[in-house]
Design a protein that fits this description.
The chain is of the alpha/beta class and 232 residues long. 34% of the residues lie in helices and 11% in strands. It has a five-stranded parallel sheet, sandwiched between helices.
Length: 232
């Protein structure tokens, strides 16, 4: 029996790495898609390459699209400072400046085209609505809306082929995600999540992504292997 083909949106961060490992554990033939969108965290790309190699993917496409030409986010506009030292209890209460306008809509659209070209019937991504920074495109409402779009926007959909959008982390805490990944043998030391890594790939330890990641490892009771700067 042939394996189910699945496109995995792979950023090189903690969540997408966990999703990739889970897809492999579920027996999927993985087609990894990494978007190089001129983001501040260029070390994500190298991390994604390592994750893809570790998971024995069938193909890894790194697709360039320069979202810095649009800007509007501290992740794509270097003149906007990344927010630091936000009190943990306030994370997610408002949409931060790290939100990249329409990013998941853009990424899922590219993944949809890639999936159709490869005859894949699933797209896996690591969105999470519990431990996240308040992004509107990480909510169940967004995923449900995109599923409806996929059904009418593609040749495969019109001809009756069913495409599943797999979001296995949607209702997990960051600690739960780390526990899941640890059970799957994920090496989190190679992942990069920080919004403001230095030139050596060391995490700042103070942005919202780092704070959520730190708390997740503490909640999971798993040692944090993240390489932080000395002042983190």
């Amino acid at each position: 029996m042939s394996k189910t083909k699945a496109v995995v949106l792979l950023s090189g961060g903690l969540d997408s790495t966990t999703v990739c490992a889970l897809a492999r554990a579920k027996g999927r033939e993985i087609y990894a898609l990494t978007i190089n969108y001129a983001q501040r965290n260029v070390h994500e790309i190298a991390a994604a390459k390592k994750v893809a190699q570790n998971n024995g993917v069938a193909e890894h496409v790194i697709l360039p699209i320069d979202l810095s030409l649009i800007g509007g986010s501290s992740l794509t506009d270097m003149s906007i400072d990344v927010a630091k030292d936000v009190p943990f209890e306030k994370i997610g209460q408002k949409i931060p400046n790290s939100y990249v306008p329409a990013r998941n809509t853009i990424f899922l659209s590219l993944a949809l085209g890639y999936a159709e070209a490869r005859n894949a019937t699933e797209i896996w991504l690591g969105v999470n609505q519990l431990d996240y920074s308040g992004y509107p495109d990480c909510r169940p409402e967004f995923i449900d809306a995109f599923k409806r779009l996929a059904a009418v926007a593609t040749k495969a959909g019109v001809e009756g082929a069913k495409l599943e959008i797999m979001t296995p982390l949607l209702y997990l805490t960051k600690g739960g995600i780390i526990q899941l990944g640890t059970s799957l043998g994920v090496d989190y030391s190679i992942t990069r999540t920080c919004y403001d890594l230095d030139e050596n790939g060391l995490a700042c330890g103070r942005c919202e992504a780092c704070l959520l990641r730190k708390n997740g490892f503490q909640e999971a009771g798993v040692p944090d292997p993240t390489p932080y700067r000395q002042d983190a």
